[in-house]
From TrEMBL:
Claim: Membrane is one of the keywords in the record: yes
Keyword annotations: Endoplasmic reticulum, Lyase, Membrane, NADP, Transmembrane, Transmembrane helix
Keyword Transmembrane appears in the UniProt entry: yes
Reactions catalysed, as given in the entry: a long-chain fatty aldehyde + 2 NADPH + O2 + H(+) = a long-chain alkane + formate + 2 NADP(+) + H2O
Enzyme class: lyase
UniProt-recorded name of the protein: aldehyde oxygenase (deformylating)
Molecular function as annotated in GO: aldehyde oxygenase (deformylating) activity; iron ion binding; oxidoreductase activity
Xref: PANTHER family: STEROL DESATURASE
Subunit structure: Homodimer.
Organism: Aegilops tauschii (Tausch's goatgrass)
Length: 465
């Protein structure tokens, strides 16, 4: 009680004075111990001393009446106290638990149980909805706000702010599924690593995996505000191994399609497909949904667009010839088509003539001569600029050590770390927009945007891309 009193008004404004000149040694020790356990001072007491006394009296009266009638018991005391605290906490949680249709179907219930919206009106207006738990007494006393139930219906409907950007991810594996804020917030705030305390929880997480697979829909993992824009991360309820099961392909695409259509209805501007959600074999990198819904207003993109722009920006000026591995991937295809339009000869390392010819036909007739298929690294011995889109073995790496410029398309850390021109690319249409009918807009990756915009010279003309 003393700790609660010292942490509440009017002592709060006294600051260090209350520690030095007001409290005695014993009280300082007591308050400090509470404050050390929980850094939030409010946890030492959520109410004033008078409120504690009044609430204690209100809780004691019904129990005293039951005891006087010979119906009191220890179980009744525990049940009443727990119910009282639950209802009080529910009224302050700001989350609507009761569906609006329940009160429309059974109108008398609105006078028997209150809702968080009902109690919020009391805290905001302070002239209505005084009663805890039972609005019936406000009705009898004439202090019931008539808009309580309409406001409750709107809040229950979830009229939330629509995000500007949605990152559509998926679960990696059972162990990684526990690395999310709503499971273990502290663990999720650190880089993922397999910890010993996760092993006993693995069977439970495995059970949830089957439940999610059977019943769940796309859900929100986290969100953040950046430069005045709301960004959300959604998860398709599928794990990494699901994407390699042939019979699971249609179900995954259905989940992604529903998520895109949901984002469309919400007014989301950009949806980015992450990881295996953009697998070429699964849905053509997203083209399946764009072709199926040609009138989509939401822009469907993926990270390869920005990667292609960064790689193109790293190619030295005056380059006339480039060697590429991984040239028939989505990323390699976009880069190759852009470079051949710039009259740069591209040696595309691939054993698949069919995939090479398919990409070559997408180029303009006058530019197709700049795309050349090669099948051996020796063909590029005289080429000074390599774009590496696949893993190089140690032997292969030793063979190219003498080359001047090597860019690894899968590792952008060094590129982003020392390149001041990347910021300009974040405002421009990405190079991968040449990749067929895929629905893209000007990709602005605000997470990588820096304060050096003014000094970054333009390197790629959006009109050319």
């Amino acid at each position: 009680m003393g700790a609660a009193f010292l942490s509440s008004w009017p002592w709060d404004n006294l600051g260090i004075f209350k520690y030095v000149n007001v409290t005695d040694v014993a009280m300082r020790r007591r308050f400090s111990s509470v404050n050390a356990v929980c850094p939030v001072r409010a946890s030492a007491g959520f109410a004033t001393p008078l409120e504690h006394l009044v609430l204690g009296l209100l809780m004691a009266l019904p129990l005293a009446g039951a005891c006087a009638a010979g119906l009191g018991s220890v179980g009744l005391a525990f049940a009443y106290v727990l119910s009282f605290d639950f209802l009080r906490a529910m009224g302050h949680c700001n989350v609507e638990l009761f569906p609006g249709g329940l009160f429309r179907s059974l109108p008398f219930l609105r006078y028997l149980i209150y809702t968080p919206t009902y109690h919020t009106i009391h805290h905001t207006g302070k002239k209505a909805n005084f009663c805890l738990f039972m609005p019936l007494f406000d009705r009898l006393g004439g202090t019931l706000d008539p808009e309580s139930w309409e406001l409750q219906r709107k809040n229950r409907a979830g009229m939330d702010e629509a995000p500007d950007f949605v990152f559509l991810a998926h679960v990696v594996d059972v162990m990684q599924s526990m690395h999310v804020p709503f499971v273990m917030r502290t663990f999720a705030s650190t880089p993922f690593a397999v910890r010993a305390f996760l092993l006993p929880l693995w069977p439970i997480a495995l059970l949830f995996m089957f439940m999610v697979w059977a019943w769940s829909k796309t859900f929100i993992i986290s969100y953040y505000h950046l430069r005045g824009k709301l960004h959300q991360i959604w998860a398709v309820p599928r794990y990494g191994f699901h994407y390699f099961l042939p019979f699971a392909k249609d179900g995954i695409n259905d989940q992604i399609e529903l998520a895109i259509l949901r984002a469309e209805r919400m007014g989301v501007k950009v949806v980015s497909l992450a990881a295996l959600n953009k697998n070429e074999a699964l849905n053509g990198g997203g083209t399946l949904f764009v072709n199926k819904h040609p009138d989509l207003r939401v822009r469907v993109v993926h990270g390869n667009t920005l990667t292609a722009a960064v790689i193109l920006n790293e190619i030295p000026k005056g380059t006339t010839e480039v060697f590429m591995t991984g040239a028939t991937s989505k990323l390699g295809r976009a880069i190759a088509l852009y470079l051949c339009r710039k009259k740069i000869r591209v040696m595309m390392m691939t054993l698949s003539t069919e995939r090479f010819q398919k990409i070559q036909k997408e180029a303009a007739a006058e530019d197709q001569q700049y795309l050349v298929q090669v099948t051996k690294f020796q063909s590029a011995e005289q080429c000074k600029t390599w774009i590496v889109g696949k893993w190089l073995s140690p032997r292969e790496q030793r063979n190219v050590l003498a080359l001047i410029h090597i860019r690894h398309a899968g590792d952008l850390c060094s590129v982003l770390g020392d390149n001041a021109e990347v910021s300009t690319l974040l405002h421009q249409t990405c190079a991968a927009d040449v990749a067929g009918p895929f629905n893209r807009s000007k990709l602005q990756n605000n997470a990588l945007k820096r304060d050096y915009d003014a000094k970054a010279p333009p390197s790629l003309d959006p009109k050319e891309i």
